[in-house]
Design a protein that fits this description.
Blueprint: H1 14-17, H2 25-38, E1 46-51, H3 56-69, E2 78-84, H4 91-105, E3 109-114, H5 123-146, E4 151-155, H6 160-172, H7 177-180, E5 186-189, E6 213-217, H8 225-235, H9 260-276, H10 281-309, E7 322-324, H11 337-351, H12 360-371, E8 379-381, E9 384-389, E10 392-397
Parallel strand pairs: 1-2, 1-4, 2-3, 4-6
Antiparallel strand pairs: 5-6, 7-10, 8-9, 9-10
Length: 400
């Protein structure tokens, strides 16, 4: 075993034995979750991609998915992708080891993608995430098009504990119901940015004309982190240890503080456990699940309203003024504010509104153009101006 693969045990011996029968235990439980996630769909024309970091969560996912997909998914349609952000001197050898481990397990392809993290306003964690998904989506599209496949389905190893951490991160930043829903079980990704469509600039997704559709599933959101660790032990896999997940890591924010997720994992959640006398993670994950369910209902209702009030939808194009006419649905005030806010948000995004800079106050002020109209003038929002003209709500893209 060379230094490059020293952090891992390849898929021989104990690991190979698991492929000849139901694994049982932690790995068996993960396999059942993944079988349920795959359902009865036909994956003949789908590329299944594991986002493999080399940590215990993604390794357990990779092992479980391969077992769950056996006899159902063409072998050539199962691949693993690893991104080396070059944060640490050891990252190259760890990424190579992760890819080799995937190949040893039985993945048709396992590639390492390398890229340094650009300086963006998203911070080191957010910038790394954006670059990682852009690279992985691009690589997966190349493989899918080469094999003439119609869709790509990414799988990530995010666990219940990751979900709980995400809820706390969103709470600290001023959460909406959408934000509290945290990581969704399934998202559609933009084929250019690799970001969920709910996060991307809408000019990239108003017209869905991609030749290959890209999806992402997070099947382990109901699985505890300790279960993925046990699954790796059961499968004979030794995951890499990433020191950037430690408080004393050299990876810091611009202010020199620990990365937010690391601080929540190692400081906030343990303190909450002590203060409450119980583990808060399951309750936080349930909150995300409930918020997701409620948000989906409100989004569906908002989409139906928008479909009725969007003037010239068939001929409208990005960059043009976007007009909403509520006269066709009776009194607009009968539309509940939570739904109307989502109508305005979606319309604003189509018109060019910048999601990251929009506040609840912005959305309430736009909703007041319908619910509390008393002659107020045009509203300047991030990227758009919104006004009421002849009873219609008009969104115009601006440079502000």
């Amino acid at each position: 075993m060379t230094d490059a693969i020293a952090p891992y045990i390849s898929a021989t011996g104990r690991s190979k034995e698991l492929w000849n029968h139901d694994a049982g235990g932690a790995l068996g439980g993960i396999q059942l979750v993944l079988k349920d996630c795959l359902g009865d769909d036909d994956y003949t024309d789908t590329l299944l991609v594991v986002a493999l970091s080399g940590g215990p969560d993604s390794l357990a996912l990779a092992a479980g998915l391969l077992r769950a997909a056996s006899r159902r998914v063409p072998a050539g349609n199962l691949v693993a992708l690893t991104v080396d952000h070059e944060w640490r001197a050891e990252s190259a050898s760890e990424a190579a080891a992760a890819a080799k481990c995937a190949r040893d397990l039985g993945y048709a392809q396992a590639k390492v993608l390398r890229a340094q993290i650009p300086e963006t306003g998203a911070g080191p964690e957010g910038s790394a995430r954006e670059m990682r998904w852009r690279l992985m989506t691009r690589a997966a599209l190349s493989i899918a098009r080469e094999r003439k496949l119609k869709s790509i389905h990414f799988f990530t190893g995010h666990t219940l504990d990751d979900q709980a951490e995400t809820v706390l991160l969103r709470l600290g930043r001023g959460a909406s119901l959408l934000a509290l829903s945290a990581m969704w079980p399934v998202d559609m990704l933009d084929s250019t940015s690799g970001l969920p469509r709910r996060e991307e600039p809408l000019e990239n997704s108003v017209k869905n004309d991609e030749d290959v559709l890209v999806w992402i599933s997070r099947p382990l959101l109901g699985v505890r982190r300790e279960t993925t660790h046990e699954a790796c032990r059961q499968a004979g896999l030794i995951p890499a240890h990433d020191p950037t997940n430690e408080l004393e890591s050299e990876a810091k924010t611009a202010a020199g503080e620990a990365l937010p997720r690391v601080a929540i994992r190692q400081r906030v959640l343990p303190e909450l456990r002590r203060a409450l006398g119980q583990d808060p993670a399951p309750a936080l994950a349930r909150l995300a699940e409930q918020a997701y369910s409620d948000e989906m209902y409100l989004q569906v209702e908002a989409a139906e309203v928008l479909d009725k009030v969007f003037m010239d939808e068939a001929t409208w194009d990005v960059g043009q003024p976007l007009r909403l006419d509520f006269s066709g649905i009776g009194k607009a005030r009968i539309v509940p504010r939570p739904i109307l806010r989502r109508v305005m948000y979606r319309a604003g995004r189509w018109a060019g509104m910048r999601a990251g800079d929009v506040t609840m106050e912005h959305l309430e002020s736009v909703t007041d153009l319908v619910h509390d109209w008393h002659g107020q003038g045009p509203l300047d929002l991030p990227g758009v101006q919104v006004s009421r003209e002849n009873g219609q709500i008009v969104f115009r893209k601006t440079g502000n």
